[in-house]
Specification:
globular; about 210 residues; alpha/beta; 3-stranded antiparallel sheet; 5-stranded parallel sheet; Rossmann fold
């Protein structure tokens, strides 16, 4: 069984998806981390994210592995490195490149084949797994999302303001929603969940209730 959880940053997707997968005894696939890994690889190689042909060419030498709780880029553990604001912005930029989306969508389908898995991202229920048995789309007030993200980054020692995060978030949301291939929109059969005034536990309870029904 495949369960998809889509939505923008700051709605609690990763935390909810991990906890929900554990509650159900399913595996967890952090697809956003895969885009971050591509962005990090391009930044390290000096490949311009505006040069789609160069990005596509660089994909052939890339290997991304997703063992539980970790992200490996060509064998290196980059789990922490891909969470910087710079990589976050880069992830949204590489996400508009068709070759990257096709490359990672194929990898995601391969990983999920024959498994009980919960996948989180921005296009899982529409582009990657249109036939998933249950789909959710999480939302939240934009400023609340920015505050959550800023607090998360500060806890990791990164000095950022809510206004800075909000500006970057707005830019990223626009790119994700307006891209030609697999834009960030709810699947027609996705269940919407507004997390603005909900705790993580309450969100998980809602999702689990829908799934078990």
């Amino acid at each position: 069984m495949i369960i998809t959880i889509d939505g923008p940053s700051g709605v609690g997707k990763s935390t909810v998806t991990k906890a929900l997968a554990a509650r159900l005894g399913f595996e967890f696939l952090d697809t956003g981390a895969m885009y971050r890994a591509v962005a990090l690889a391009m930044q390290r190689s000096g490949v311009s994210l505006d040069d789609f042909a160069a990005v596509e060419s660089a994909l052939s030498g890339m290997r991304i592995e997703m063992p539980p709780g970790r992200v490996l880029l060509n064998g290196e553990d980059v789990t922490a490195l891909i969470r910087s604001p710079e990589v976050s912005q880069g992830a949204s930029k590489v996400a508009v490149i068709p070759a990257v989306r096709h490359f990672l969508a194929a990898e995601q389908r391969r990983i999920a084949e024959g498994r009980d898995i919960v996948c989180e991202g921005r296009d899982q229920g529409t582009f990657v797994f249109p036939n998933a048995e249950r789909k959710f789309f999480l939302t939240a007030d934009s400023r609340v999302r920015a505050e959550r993200r800023a607090n998360e980054l500060k806890a990791k020692g990164q000095d950022v303001s809510v206004e800075q995060v909000l500006a970057e978030q707005t830019e990223r949301d626009h790119r994700d929603a307006e891209r030609d291939l697999a834009p960030m929109v709810p699947a027609q059969d996705a269940i919407p969940v507004d997390t603005t005034h909900l705790s993580i536990a309450e969100v998980i309870e809602q999702l689990e209730s829908h799934i078990r029904r």
